């Protein structure tokens, strides 16, 4: 019996090469799998299937994992207002994590003897795939032809041609990765520190100039409605926000960060829905959470984002943090009002039954209804005790 | 001998009332003191002195504390990239802290028997003044007529008129506080949760439309040059940045946060120099600090900002955090390149001899020069061990 | 109709005084309530009831809250291995929190117009009672005769005598507070920094010399069996541990800490069951939790303990942390083996199906079965990258 | 010219094998170096030199690094009260870190072409040596014969015999590592989870039964005197404490923790001086530091210990934390009074000019001199505001 391999297949040059190489050179029965985390539509699915078949794979499977992606990961990035280094919504990190888990699950189901991915040796993805495969399928071999052989584009294309697969792989100027939670844009300027990306490097172009109002409604921290329209699943709500805000060029930036392999990396991105959702959610939390909820949640979420980024999603501490995050969202209900402008947006305000800002108790700087001036005198007296003692003893 | 009081004097209605009330009603010899943290120019100084004298104070003193303000406080807000609730540069919190310390020092120098401030009972400032006065001058009485008597504007004006001080205190629609690190704008919309401030509520209006390039140079985390121009003190560099960016309406936002007295408060602000400096500094740090330096510094800085806000600047832990921050800035050197647009700015990139992003070692996603694919295989193998064991034991 | 007050009643001199003072001097209908958090047995209950009745209260209620105390609070102190300042099991802090909540609930149920406690102005308890009463019954007046009047013991006794209540309140040398989670011992030596408590200050004396074996079994982090004996509720298991370990004088120490009112305080305690349970639980966690679970849980638990101590139990962040803690205990199952000696104990080891220390994968310092030497070379190569780059760039 | 290698030489079987193997089999000129971090005395030095010479090394160097060890590392473990997993003073982690740095420095000085250590593939030391060598000498090859060849004891002995080196390497039942900051004891029981070490596994035996008084004096957090005797360097003070406490069997325990390679490891230790110094220092800090200094320092120190353990000592964040720690020790001055008993000790109390516990201001639970009952009422009123609002809004 032929040994079988499951290949994480994106349809690009590298994974096309892998498909051929695994079957022709290594003699595997190749089961190609694409896990959709929001980057592919139905036309893409047809095209991917066709390409895989032309490459002669034994089977091709397209797994639609958008809801799982949201439920298992994106949801917590919203709850935690997670922006890596205060900038990047971690879209690629999160996608790879969910893709790798789906690939591994599939490989176990069909009893594959090996599992393959097309990552190079220079990025984070290799670690995410390797690590999740090792944890979930420790008995399977992991095969990474691109990393192992360090082939040039031309060599890959020639190999494919030699094996009867002759497609025009156009060399894009930028490497693009699209998903529910954002689109990354790497290459050229991002390889150095000095310059930002030019306007046309971004897949979405600015097409609207006139400001629009946007209203996002949250229930227990999740988006349930956009401009009054409700959705069967938050995935659709996020897609709606993206469709409204993307024509404004909102949510573009460049992330500079520490890769898992130790070098600094830089990558551009556009992520209108992610930025709007997180910033709106964060504003609503400022009105509905206690001071310490915000402080502790923020610090936990930093770690959550870092470890997600560093391929440690399967560490049980991530589940524990998710339990904290879930519990913290009970009062995060209400509407956030936003105005969209080209390249930017303004958070106007919120309405919420859980809003802790209520002039029933007092009005900042204006009126104290729930306490007296004498109460504050006592408060500051007692609050100062420790410091007064410290400075008297140590003066 | 008459007992003497030092009054924190801003020249507004409340502190004018205090000046008269302290002398006329309470029989004190009043020493009015204004501490300038960047909100007053020379004309203001003359006007303040004149007003104080008309109010019949025994002495009037104008303390120029801008450099001290920067050295003792603003510097660390830059080092820590401190934006309260990820938004607000803490300008008022920082100013009051430095003002209160200067007032207290002055009161001790002249041997005053009391110390007075004009805060109401509804805000944060009362706590900052009370607390720092109690810690630094525990033997002095603290007098707070406005908080104690809850007078209306009209009553205050009438009292002043009755005592021969008849000036037109125009009632501004918004309460404005200006300083080196930003200008706060409170009132009307900020008293409720729903709406943002209208364009004309902001003291600075957008006057420039054409993008400009801005270059900020840092040495050990401090701004030393702006567009190539060097400065005798970072205070002047910050003022330069403000003058360049303020005509773009940059750095406006609304802060929603937890007051020290327990209610939620909302306040608008414009702080072009603060936002630009912090974001430029933060970008430079992403290139020059290690991963863990950034993570730990960020968490410490959150606490630093919170405690500064909550009047705990004199806690020795603040000095300990400053020691950490100082030490962390050794490699934060280089230039940051920015483009200014109306209402926003883009961080283009950096140049630094301490830039850890160097293609000598590898290029993210493109090339691994300092390690091999096999090294990464070993890395992910060992890194996965703990999780593999966890999931096998617990499956 | 007479206005009614609910009095937190412990049966001591202070609350006896309050009972009389509230009815005789202030004219209240007094409803005395004792909340038992493990310090009282059935004989105590009879005695308390009798004393309250002699004091002429309108009603007396004894609320048995041991299980609630465990379920709402002690359980999380175990999950978090909480020892304030690495020493003190927070017994009194936890008891007051649960007592105050029960008193407040009772006061609301009977529609009382006021609520009273007998705390002095010098400790933490006043803040815990005040704060929880204000949060839960903001409409009720809080009456604190002892704090307000600063009476001497003699004055209180005389007042009671004058009102026909003449009992011999012996002046104990130490002030003792007993509960499920430990007994505190304050007075004399603990009022200064220099000396520890003498042997006979501790209520339990060392009566056993011969070592005994103790086996504690945990399920999801909770004690379910002691020496093989199972219990209907963890409260009984804890009492069993206490009965076995207390005759060894285990769990004695002096806590030095920051009171809520700003001074440093010092208090002795004996808490055999608390110390044994926490240390055994912690050891089991070292074997069954991941590295990052332990680190994050430890830091969260520090805050949990601090805020419990500081009367902030009702902050919603506490519920969020409890959600984290609950989730973290899924794998904390197994037996811990201990030997008890006079004044100390030794944790011998554990047995657990969730033990992550398994020689199937490798044996520390002896054998690597799940990885090769080459894997580690790759691991250290990649792990060193960031530091190597840092030191080369900055040398 | 012969290529040269610097070998980290401990004189045991593994590094003896390496010495021969590197010269005879690999043809290196071997420069053996021992770095003393407190485990070797002068007789040991003579013996090590003689053994190295018998093994035919080109040069042998004994580096006395005790003071450097203390200054660069142990000092901060004291400042941070660092006990890994609340138990282990990190003696081995700290020693390897300082040893590796000294070896690397030496290798650079003599311009060696390679650097070798004798670690196996199953422990933490290999990572510490590899990583520090790679960071400090990235151009040198790292040779690890023991890890690479997985030889048995017998094979190593036979190889040495074949090359004329025939010494009786007795197989100890436990593997012992001695240093200034403690002695680790591994083997047999520690390889499994269930049992503790027997009495005679510990190198020091309990020889004293009668309690003794011990007085440790600190200045800026460092030990300056023991029982009134002052020392030229803290290293000697620590050795004095060890000599006094070791005969009581104090400071024994078993550490269970996460190795860098992912498995759980268990190791026994005796570390009388480390435990006494840390616990005494910690007590003094409870009296002399502010609440927040203690909380933040504790959390930072946890990370410091973890990263030291995980070979990340050269990360610049460690220097930043050290700056925090240094600054925090300004007020940590005074004497700590301890009684030593067999297997345990009691911290009696402290004397310090910086003691913040002073009845000038108040006495916990007894007297409030610096504030009134009304002050506390105001304090609790204002402190409760946020929670009262939260619970009213969300009820």
UniProtKB/TrEMBL annotation, chains A, B, C, D:
InterPro entries: Arginosuc_syn_C (IPR048268), Arginosuc_syn_N (IPR048267), Arginosuc_synth (IPR001518), Arginosuc_synth_CS (IPR018223), Arginosuc_synth_type_1_subfam (IPR023434), AS_cat/multimer_dom_body (IPR024074), Rossmann-like_a/b/a_fold (IPR014729). It comes from Soonwooa buanensis. This is argininosuccinate synthase. Residues 5-164 form the Arginosuccinate synthase-like N-terminal domain. PROSITE patterns: ARGININOSUCCIN_SYN_1. One of its GO terms (molecular function) is argininosuccinate synthase activity. It comes from the Bacteria. Pfam families: Arginosuc_syn_C, Arginosuc_synth. Keywords: Amino-acid biosynthesis, Arginine biosynthesis, ATP-binding, Ligase, Nucleotide-binding. GO terms for cellular component: cytoplasm. Its EC number is 6.3.4.5. Residues 174-384 form the Arginosuccinate synthase C-terminal domain. SUPFAM superfamilies: Adenine nucleotide alpha hydrolases-like (SSF52402), Argininosuccinate synthetase, C-terminal domain (SSF69864). Pathway: Amino-acid biosynthesis; L-arginine biosynthesis; L-arginine from L-ornithine and carbamoyl phosphate: step 2/3. The keyword Cytoplasm does not apply. One of its GO terms (biological process) is argininosuccinate metabolic process.
């Amino acid at each position: 019996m032929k040994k079988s391999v499951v290949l994480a297949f994106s349809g690009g040059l590298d994974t096309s090469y892998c498909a051929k190489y695994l079957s022709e050179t290594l003699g595997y029965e190749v089961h190609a799998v694409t896990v959709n985390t929001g980057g592919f539509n139905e036309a893409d699915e047809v095209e991917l299937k066709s390409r895989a078949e032309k490459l002669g794979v034994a089977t091709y499977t397209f797994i639609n994992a958008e809801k799982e992606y949201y439920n298992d990961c994106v949801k917590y990035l919203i709850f935690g207002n997670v922006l890596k280094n205060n900038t990047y919504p971690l879209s690629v990190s999160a996608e790879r994590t969910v893709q790798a888990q789906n690939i591994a699950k599939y490989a176990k189901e069909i009893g594959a003897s090996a599992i393959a991915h097309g990552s190079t040796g220079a990025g984070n993805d290799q670690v995410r795939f390797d690590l999740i495969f090792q944890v979930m399928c420790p008995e399977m071999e992991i095969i990474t032809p691109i990393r192992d052989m360090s082939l040039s584009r031309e060599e890959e294309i020639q190999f494919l041609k030699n094996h009867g697969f002759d497609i025009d792989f156009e060399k894009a100027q930028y490497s693009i990765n699209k998903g529910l939670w954002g689109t990354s844009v790497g290459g050229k300027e991002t390889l150095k520190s000095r310059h930002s990306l030019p306007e046309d490097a971004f897949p979405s172009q600015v097409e609207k100039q006139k400001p629009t109002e946007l209203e996002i409604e949250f229930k227990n921290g999740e988006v349930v409605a956009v401009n009054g329209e409700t959705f069967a699943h938050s995935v659709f709500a996020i897609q709606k926000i993206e469709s409204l805000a993307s024509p404004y060029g909102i949510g573009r930036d460049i992330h500079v960060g520490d890769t898992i392999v130790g070098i600094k990396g830089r990558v551009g991105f556009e992520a209108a829905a992610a930025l709007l959702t997180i910033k709106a959610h964060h504003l609503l939390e400022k009105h509905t959470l206690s001071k310490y909820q915000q402080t502790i949640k923020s610090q936990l979420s930093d770690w959550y984002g870092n470890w997600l980024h560093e391929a440690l999603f399967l560490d049980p501490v991530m589940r524990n943090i998710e339990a904290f995050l879930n519990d913290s969202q009970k009062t995060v209900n209400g509407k956030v009002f936003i105005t969209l402008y080209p390249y930017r947006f303004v958070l106007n305000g919120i309405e919420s039954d859980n809003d802790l800002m209520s002039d029933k108790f007092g009005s900042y700087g204006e009126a104290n209804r729930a306490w007296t001036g004498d109460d504050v005198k006592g408060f500051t007296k007692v609050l100062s005790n420790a410091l007064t003692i410290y400075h008297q003893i140590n003066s």
